[in-house]
Amino acid sequence: MQSSGLGALVRLVIVRDLRLAVRHWDQVIQPLIFFAIITTLFPLAISPALDELRRIAPGIVWVAAMLASLLALESLFRPDVEDGTMEQWVLSGQPLSLLLLAKVVTHWLLTGLPLVLMSPLVGTALGMPQSVWPTLMATLALGTGSLSMLGGVGAALTVAVRRGSVLLALLVLPLEMPVLIFGARAVDLAMQGEPVAGPLNLLAALLLFFASLGPFAMAAAMRVSVES
Amino acid sequence: MWLWFHKLSSPPYAYRMATLLRPWFFWTALALIVFAAYGGLVLAPPDYQQKDAFRIIYVHAPAAIMSLQVYVVMAIAAAVGVIWRIKLAHAVAAACAPVGAAFTVVALATGSIYGKPMWGTWWEWDPRITSELIQLFLYLGYMALRASFDDTQRADRASAILAIVGVVNVPIVKYSVVWWNSLHQAPTISKIGKPSIELSMAWPLYTMLLGFMLYFAAVLCDRVRSEILRRERNANWLVETVKTS
C-alpha cells in the first residue's frame, strides 16, 4: 500500500468505518430509533389530530433530525481518540483534514442517509401528503450533510473534554440554526404547493460552504484535542 | 514597521500599556456617555410617531452594534493567536467574550422593552432578534468551551477555532433585516451619505456609540491585565511590576 495515493487512503478509511459499523450495527440504529421516538412525542404532547400536526410537521421532522444527528456525533471520533487510532493518524503525515472528511462522509452514510430514507415514513405519520416526499428527502439529504460537517467540527473540539456531550450540543446547535431555517422553510413551502428552489439552493450552498472549510477546522480542532 | 506589533505581543509591555491607557479610555468614555445621554434624553426632539419612547435606541442601537463588533474583535484576536501563536492575542480573545455577551444581553433586553410599546409584544420571533439570540448562545458556548479545559493553552486554541467558525453568524445578524421581511426596522444610521435620521437625533447616537467603544476598550484593558496576571503568575517581571506599583 506504500505507493497508493490519497484516493486509496480515503477509501481505506471509509471501508474500515463501514466495516466497524456493520459489526456494531446496534449503535448505528440507535439514532434512528431516537428519531422515531422524538417524532412520537409531538402527537402525544400537542394533539393527535392530523390537521394540527400537518401544519407543524416540517418543523417536527427537522428538529427530530437535528437532535438525532447530534446524538450520533458522540460516536464520530470518540472511539478512535480513546483507543489511540487518532493519535496515529495525526502523526502519520497524511493530510488529517482529508482523513477526517472521509470519516464524516462515512458517518453521514450511516446516520444521515438512513434519516433521509426514513423521513417519508415519519412525515406520512404526521399527515404530510405524498407530494412533499421529494422535497422532504432533498432538504434532509442536503441538510444532514451540513449538520454532519458542523457537528464534526464540534465533535473534534469536545472529544477530549470529559462529559462533553452537553457542551457539544451547546456549541453546535446555534451554528446549525440556519440549516434548520432553510430546511423547514422548504418543506413548508412544498406543503403549500409553492416553488422550493430558493431554500433548496441555499441549503446546497451551505453544504458546499461547510464541506469545503469544515475539514480544515476539524483537523485544527483535532490536533488540539489529541495532543496532551 | 512591525516592531510595535511584536512589542505589543510581549506581556510586560502590553501590561504596562493597558495600565497606562485604561484611565484615558474610561474617563473619556464616561464623559461621552453622560454627554450623549443628556443629548439623547433631553436635547433631541421627540419622534413624530413614537414620541419619547424612541429614546431607548440611544442604548439599544449602540449595544447591538457593539455585540457584533466585540465578536469580530474576538475572532480576529483568536485568528491572530492561532496563526502567529501569540499568547497575548488569546488573552485578548478570552477577555472579549464576557463583555460581548453583556452587550448582547443589553441589546436584547432594551430591544424587548422597546418592542412592548412599539410592536405590542415583548418578544417576536423575528430574524433580527432570533439571530441576535443565537449570537448570545455563541458567546455562551465560547465561554463554556473555554471553561471546560484545565490547561489554558488548549483552552486558547480550541476556543479560537470556535470563535473563527462562529463568525458566520455576524453577517447573518447584520443583514437579517435586509434579507428577510422583518418587523425590525431597516438600518437607518449606518447609511453613509444619506442617513434616514435627523441630525439632531443622530448626534447623540454616534456619540453614545463612540462612548460604548471606548468603554469596551477600557474594560478590555482591565480584563487583559487580569488575564496576564493569571497567565504569567510565575513570571519574574510580574512580581517586580506588582511590587513597585
Give the SSE layout.
The complex is a heterodimer of chains A (228) and B (245).
Chain A: H1 6-23, H2 25-45, H3 50-82, H4 85-91, H5 96-125, H6 133-158, H7 165-191, H8 197-226
Helix pairs in contact in A: 1-5, 2-3, 2-5, 3-5, 3-6, 3-7, 5-6, 5-8, 6-7, 6-8, 7-8
Chain B: H1 3-8, H2 11-43, H3 57-84, H4 87-119, H5 127-147, H6 152-166, H7 169-179, H8 199-231, H9 236-244
Helix pairs in contact in B: 2-8, 3-4, 3-6, 3-8, 4-5, 4-6, 4-8, 5-6, 5-7
Please tell me about this protein's structure.
The complex is a heterodimer of chains A (228) and B (245). Chain A has 228 residues and is mostly helical. Chain A contains eight helices and no strands. Chain A has one domain. In chain A, helix 2 packs antiparallel against helix 3, helix 3 runs antiparallel to helix 7 and helix 6 (133-158) packs antiparallel against helix 7 (165-191). The radius of gyration of chain A is 18 Å and the shape is elongated. The two termini of chain B are 31 Å apart. Helix content of chain B is 77%, strand content 0%. Chain B has helices spanning 3-8, 11-43, 57-84, 87-119, 127-147, 152-166, 169-179, 199-231, 236-244. Chain B has one domain (17-43, 50-244): Four Helix Bundle (Hemerythrin (Met), subunit A) (Up-down Bundle), CATH 1.20.120. The longest helix of chain B is centred in the first third of the chain and has 33 residues, at 11-43. Classes of the chains: A mainly alpha (228), B mainly alpha (245). Chains A and B meet through helix 6, helix 7 and helix 8 of A and helix 5 and helix 6 of B.
